Prior knowledge:
The structure is a single chain. By secondary structure, the protein is of the alpha+beta class. Helices cover 25% and strands 24% of the residues. The chain contains 8 helices and 13 strands. It has helices spanning 12-20, 77-92, 134-146, 179-188, 190-195, 231-236, 277-291, 294-297; strands at 61-73, 97-98, 116-122, 127-130, 151-163, 168-175, 208-215, 238-239, 258-259, 265-266, 298-301, 303-308, 311-316. Strand 5 (151-163) and strand 6 form a beta hairpin. Helix 2 packs antiparallel against helix 7 (277-291). One of its GO terms (biological process) is U6 snRNA 3'-end processing. One of its GO terms (cellular component) is nucleus.
Amino acid sequence: MKRGALVPYGSSDEEESAASAPPPKKRRLPELQASLLPQVPADNSALHQGRMRTTPHIEGQFAAYVYVPLVLERSSALYKLLLKAYTLAQNIVPPLHPIGIFNDTDPSDGAKPRATHELHVSLTRPTYLSAHQRDEFKRAVKSMTRAHSEFTASFSMFAELTNDERTRIFLTLEIGAGHAELKALSDTLVPALRSIRQKEFYADPRFHASIAWALLDRSPSTPAPAQDFSSDIQSSTSSTYPLSTSEPTSPSEPVTPLRGSQGSTMPQFPTIPDFPPTLVESLNREFGGTLVSRQVGMFQVGEVCVRIGKEVSRWDLVG
């Protein structure tokens, strides 16, 4: 009878050596190129004249608002009037920034003078849409334009408004004639806004076109909101605010850099407590009579626009 072959067993020393051997290193995958990474807006107010985002950026969410455009040619009487008014206003409030217009001899952003400029009369607050809500909202705006006809509107005076968060104050042209028609347009969008759980426009709106803005002082006890870089949208978030008699901060005062989270310095932008009462009074006294004239302050409302992200859609009023 043959004996079976002996099965070789490893020694205990060999087993311990195998158990203590380090696992093989995992190969590290190469990093993605920057061009392949999703582009997230940088919340840096230093790049946007100190403006603050009042709603944090959310991936897949689009800021939107509906407005009536007013295109100004450089040769128009209203455009020339606004340049004069802005020059006077900036002499009274030096930290003022223009919206929709700029002084031809000193463009605020260094850009070349444009052939036309556009002012906006907002019909909604800033609205925030998910990707799948964009087409539905555009259909609601388009449907609204099919139910209303072209009409005449006019500006009645210079005024001041602040945004809801009181981070900026605006110099505005307030609507006189055409207010009822603008209210009807805005009210038509209420069901669409409610269906996507967004705030409707103000119950007693002051329709206006913003022409300039300035940063407001923030109370130390009030936490700073996230940054907001859309001047068009911020111009539409306006409500009245009682103004004080405080004088504006002088831009000639030394600017103290702020220290960022990475040790970098951030410029501190001039702020003001409020517009001085003399600002609007002076503008209405100097230019109010011309502003309300038919040749200057009257215009036709024949188009409504909706801006969603960077996309602008336009429809004529054909009701």
